[in-house]
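Kindly inspect what follows.
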Amino acid sequence: MGEGNDLATELATDEGGFGLTSRTLGGLPIVNHVLDRLGLPALLDEALGEVDGRSKLTPAAAIRLVITNLVLGREPLYALGEWAARFDPALLAMAESEVAAVNDDRVGRALDGLFDADRAHLLTAVMLRAISEFSVSTSQLHNDRASISVHGAYRSADGTGRRGKATPVITHGHSKDHRPDLKQLVWILTVSADGAVPITYRLADGNTVDDPTHVPTWDGLVALTGRVDFLYVADSKLCSRQAMAHIAGRGGRFVTVMPRSRKEDAAFRDWLATHTPVWTEAAQTPGPRQGEPGEVYCTTPAPTPSAEGYRIVWVHSTAKAGRDAASRMARTEAGIAAIDALNLKLAGTRNRLKTRAAVEQAAAAALADTHSEKWVTATISDTTTTTYKQAGPGRPGAATNYREVLTTRYTVHADITLDRIAYDAASDGCFPLITCDRDLTDADVLGAYRYQPNLERRHHLLKSVQDAAPILLHSPARIEALFCCQFLALLIAALIEREVRNNMTSAALDTIELYPELRACKAPSTERILEIFSTVARHQLHRQGTPVQTFQPELTAQQLQVLSLLGLPPSAYTQPTKSTR
């Protein structure tokens, strides 16, 4: 459930006219601390233009509320007003009247205003401020995409421009959510290796493929960072001649994994079948549970470079080797079981596979369905039996004629191709990385690629914690603007997480007691950091509408420690707040 579930409450006055009003503070002071360091409120005011004096809710205030809600509450737009009413309005940078004016119509019009604004300039200004204010390194950047599945027809989201600006097409595509039945958008994100801080994003058509996206993404990063020497890390779709040549030809550097379809991959696996390379240990990770073996990574340079002349570094992972062997065994066993099931069918009285061609086709389909055709082959044998059947009707007698009936039964034998299994086993756990950087060590190349899962964690936060799907809006312009807010919320969450973790390192703290029952946490997440503040509230005693006494929250040692790691004084929670409006 979202933060701030306790409503701002006002108890009924007693006979003496006393009443108590409670306002939730939650994680708002923490989020506001990051917003102020980013200078985002002023940048929103500038981007969204002058305010109409007749407006009950300014566009900048509405967009700030949307971003804050995505970090804290994850409520749908139609429930935004109810969610905001739970909090101290001053911490939302709003007056009471503005909070009362929040509804989905006004917020929707604010999203329209954000779509019409110069979002490119806004995001560039925010990112440059983030990089400078939080000292985010841009020496290594990681890129990947995610699919955002949506429910509904979205007939208007056909790519038609809105007010002179392009909008993405919501359509069917390759779904990484494994939901081919749903239409989708493609979310392309780049983060820094320094805390997985989001740097840029792009919302693309639902059927966009990865290959052509890397060149414009890299060019955009060059324009943003003002440098070309950063290490650009991405998945195998970067391994195209055009993309690699574009980056390397302009002085850039890249690391990516080479797909199995490349000839260089097959050549090395052929070489492994008859040679033993010199593997050098590059990294180790502990086992997933106590007592279980850890994962060991080793590297070796490929005997020859790629067709384009780039370095190829082969990596061997002990954990991947175990997974490869187990997967091959499971598929082989499944293939044999499928052939056994086919034989039972052939031996049945209702068998309809009467020809060798039909049996061969069924056996091939059985192996293909279990993905075992590489290691299991099917051999067809037949047995013909002769029976005699009366040629005509009537009772059989001495003069009865009989005709010979030949019945052929087929049997399928599963054969394991031991030579193919041995060939594949020689390269179990191996995968190739390709780079144009000749100064990085093999271990450095591996280390750069191993950071890629941290980017996948940001995709997880977008789609689960921030609940980016399914989208309830049907205006393509508003969807585009909402994802701009999603990116800014993702940036704020990443910076909170990074500040706590970096300051833990500076303070030589391996863990902090952040989990329930004060259990230790090695890598605090923003979700958990904000959760421990979810019940923090301020109470005000009043008599006949006149404030009598304010009860500031009493923070726990756990909360004080987190605030210290964020560089935020306790007074952010314990001093009265004043509305900026």
